[in-house]
Structures are given as C-alpha cells and as structure tokens.
Amino acid sequence: AVDILTYVAWKLSGLPHNRVIGSGTNLDSSRFRFIMSQRVKVAPNSCHGWIIGEHGDTSVPVWSGVNIAGVRLRDINPHIGTDNDKENWKDVHNQVVQSAYEVIKLKGYTSWAIGLSVGTLAQAILRNGGNIHAVSTLVKGQHGIDKEVFLSLPCVLGENGVTHIVKQPLTDEEVAMLQKSAKLMDEVQSNLKMCIW
C-alpha cells in the first residue's frame, strides 16, 4: 500500500518525483540485516543486504549482493536464498515479510519500528547527509521497468529528496522479480485511475 500511496501523493501534489518518497522497504532492509546478523552472530551494522521492490509479500531480497565485511555470501553458498539452499537462507526473507503481520496480530497495528524508520529518513533529508536508504521512488527506466510506478531501490537522500538511485547489479532472477512487482503495482494503479482521476 505504501508504494501505491506514494504514487497517489506524487500525482496529487504536482511535485517533482524525486521530492515524493515513501518509506518503502527501508524498514524491511533493516530487519533483513538484523535477522541475518542474528544468524551469523555478528553486529547488524556489519551485515549488508537490501530488500527492494514492493513493500510487502512480493518484496525482493537481493541475495546476489548480501555480504558480511565485504565477503559475498553467494561466493560461499552459490544457492543462497534459492529453493536449492541447504542452509535455508530464504527463511530470513520470510521472517522479514512475516514480522509486520506478527506485530499486527499481537498488537493490532505497527508504530514504533516504522516511526523510527521514518525518523531516520527525515534525518537523512534534513541533514543533507547523502545517506542511502531503500525508499519508494519512481522507478521508470530502472532495471528495464517501463511503467510509471513507485517501488523501493537504494537511493541517496539529501535536502532535495532522492538525489540518485543506486544502480545495483542484479541477477536475471532478481530483475524478473522486480519487474513482476512493477507489473502488479501498475495493475493496481490502473484500477485506481478509474476510481479517482
């Protein structure tokens, strides 16, 4: 929903696309690194990995880039995150996706984690620090996406919003999953356009 709402906010605001961002998979990426860190027993800030695409069930874990201290886990386990992975790293992504559902089931809503995440994004923008976060941004032209949709990619944030989108090298499978997310978002947006425009 955050990606769709970001698109709607952009359309209604008239602002340049780089000035309208959604929290996207920023929190998902943080959870991904945290769960990964628990598994390998090192600090979360030593674990590097990204969740991109849609915030939700079809989010895309970028297994090809996951690393700890510069060591790519795919070099150690070529099947990481796949169905052939004997270490079942795919479960890390499943835990990320399920974590919000667990909080909602127990509490009825989410608030603290997303509040901290949005606070971090606001700080990055207000301090013009050039920090990189996975936020929902216009992805048309990225990774072969030709639709006008908002999805999460690692973005450099500054006082003008998104200053750059990081060009991650993705595998063909990761690109296909990202494009599938884009297609899904475009379909939902097409239905919205009939209702509100």
TrEMBL record:
A Gene Ontology BP annotation from the UniProt entry: lactate metabolic process
Pathway: Fermentation; pyruvate fermentation to lactate; (S)-lactate from pyruvate: step 1/1
Gene3D superfamilies per UniProt: Lactate dehydrogenase/glycoside hydrolase, family 4, C-terminal, NAD(P)-binding Rossmann-like Domain
Entry keyword set: Oxidoreductase
Matching PROSITE patterns: L_LDH
E.C. code: 1.1.1.27
GO MF terms held by the record: L-lactate dehydrogenase (NAD+) activity
Domain called Lactate/malate dehydrogenase C-terminal: residue spans: 25-184
Alphabetized Pfam families for the sequence: Ldh_1_C
PANTHER family: L-2-HYDROXYCARBOXYLATE DEHYDROGENASE (NAD(P)(+)), L-LACTATE DEHYDROGENASE
Protein family per UniProt: Belongs to the LDH/MDH superfamily. LDH family.
Protein name as catalogued: L-lactate dehydrogenase
Origin species: Timema tahoe
